[in-house]
Write a structure and sequence with these properties.
Layout (H helix, E strand, L loop, with lengths): L18 H11 L2 E3 L17 H5 L2 H10 L4 H6 L2 H14 L6 H12 L10 H8 L3 H12 L1 E5 L7 H8 L8 E2 L2 E2 L1 H5 L1 H10 L12 H16 L4 E6 L9 H17 L3 E8 L12 E2 L5 H9 L5 E5 L5 H10 L3 E3 L9 H15 L15 H26 L6 H19 L6
Helix pairs in contact: 1-17, 1-18, 3-5, 6-17, 8-17, 12-13, 15-16, 16-17
Length: 427
């Protein structure tokens, strides 16, 4: 090669000391796809949560309030929403340093938006939010989070959401649908009337025409939503196969529909609902699941694809082992109680060691728009440390690292794996 030929800087081996800063720079400049949120575009109106009061009354902070103050759940629920936010602000942000992950997240989001997180009063923060349109808030949150697209959680049996679809809410190309089927799979009997009200001939025993009608229901909503996947949150007691309605519905309607429409089924396993009902949304817990149910699903339905996240830390290694055995299983995210920096690093490190880059490190699970900002800031920080260590170890073992290597792996982890496993449905 002559000395006059240009050198591709991206393919030049890096010094070990350069790797951490380059990993950080590439993570900061790469636009991620957030594969699981509870967010909505502006056209879905009040379903989309945003603003300081919503940030403060998120159930993570509600649970923390009950631990550190004399406010009881019964007293709290009697307050107006704004007063609840005030109680949390005073207890967790004024009376003490906001050091927990959830509290620091509010601080980080406010700081990114140019708002004073040390204010003793919520008034100036509320006024600043009120001056911004929903569309402007969405644009700012996505930009500051470094996210180009998000996947929603869309429940076809939620009357408020159905009304938005019926009204042909204006689409936003940055928001993709996910067809959520919790009410069908986890509480069938209670939601037979809702299916019947939409014109489907189903019964409590899931007999007769029920399976054909559930399939018709799914086909109709897939055509309407064009989802990236179907999704369900499952308890730690989930078993498959079993002599229950859930197995009947999975085998008779849901998994065949996923196969025919080439949609992955996202399984989020390990929730223990309402261990303390007085806390409402904050009253759920986690439990270790028997992942032999996942083994059976992957083995019996090899043509189907399964996106899987488990809520128990103790299930993480087993999930990685199953992912090594079944190519139709893609682990994703550190969900809910696992979305803390120390655990994200531990789980991501294990996945890289066992699976290479064939997984999705994280999703935000954001319910409030501005949570995108701090959750993805935290992810870049935590995952960056793990990736830098992994690349430096690879270099120490004799394989030089280039910027092209880092860029390709970051793109694969935070965009490419999802786009390959759950491609967009064409209209």
């Amino acid at each position: 090669m002559s000395g006059s030929e240009p050198v591709d800087a991206d393919r030049v081996a890096m010094r070990s000391s350069e790797i951490p800063s380059e990993v950080d720079a590439i993570l900061q400049s790469t636009a991620f796809v957030d594969i699981h949120t509870h967010l909505f575009p502006a056209s879905f109106g009040r379903l989309g949560l945003s603003g300081i009061d919503e940030l403060l009354t998120y159930h993570y902070l509600e649970a923390e309030l009950f631990r550190v103050s004399d406010v009881t759940p019964e007293q709290y629920w009697q307050l107006a929403p704004a007063a609840r936010a005030e109680a949390i602000w005073q207890a967790l942000f004024v009376a003490r340093a906001p050091i927990s992950e959830a509290a620091r997240g509010v601080v980080a989001s406010l700081d990114a938006l140019g708002l004073d997180a040390s204010s003793a009063s919520l008034t100036p923060i509320r006024e600043a939010y009120a001056a911004r349109s929903v569309e402007a808030r969405i644009d700012a949150a996505l930009r500051l989070a470094g996210v180009s697209e998000v996947v929603m959680t869309n429940d076809p049996l939620d009357p408020d959401e159905v009304a938005c679809w019926d009204a042909h809410a204006a689409p936003d190309r940055r928001f993709h649908a996910a067809l959520r089927i919790d009410r069908v799979l986890n509480d069938w009997v209670a939601h037979v009337p809702a299916l019947s009200a939409q014109g489907y001939r189903v019964d409590a025993a899931a007999g007769g025409t029920s399976l054909a009608e559930v399939r018709r229901f799914l086909d109709a909503w897939i055509a309407r939503m064009r989802p990236r996947y179907m999704a369900v949150s499952l308890p730690d007691t989930f078993t498959y196969p079993a002599s229950d309605v859930r197995t009947v519905l999975l085998d008779g309607a849901i998994l065949p529909a996923c196969a025919d429409h080439r949609l992955p089924l996202s399984l989020m396993i390990g929730v223990r609902r309402q261990v303390n009902p007085a806390l409402r949304l904050a009253g759920d817990a986690s439990g270790r699941a028997d992942l032999r149910a996942l083994e059976a699903l992957c083995a019996r339905w090899p043509q189907n694809r399964f996106l899987v996240s488990v809520l128990s830390r103790e299930n993480q290694h087993e999930l990685c082992v199953y992912a090594r055995k079944f190519a139709n299983l893609l682990p994703f995210g550190c969900w809910w109680f696992l979305n803390n920096g120390s655990l994200v690093e531990e789980i991501t490190r294990m996945r890289l060691e066992m699976l290479g880059t064939s997984f999705i490190p994280q999703h935000s699970d954001a319910r409030v728009l501005e949570q995108l900002i701090y959750k993805w800031r935290n992810t870049r920080r935590s995952v960056g440390r793990v990736l830098a260590d992994s690349f430096r170890t690879m270099a120490d073992d004799g394989r030089p690292v280039t910027r092209a290597d880092i860029r390709a792996d970051v793109e694969r982890l935070f965009r490419g794996n999802f786009e390959r496993f759950a491609p967009a449905v064409q209209p």
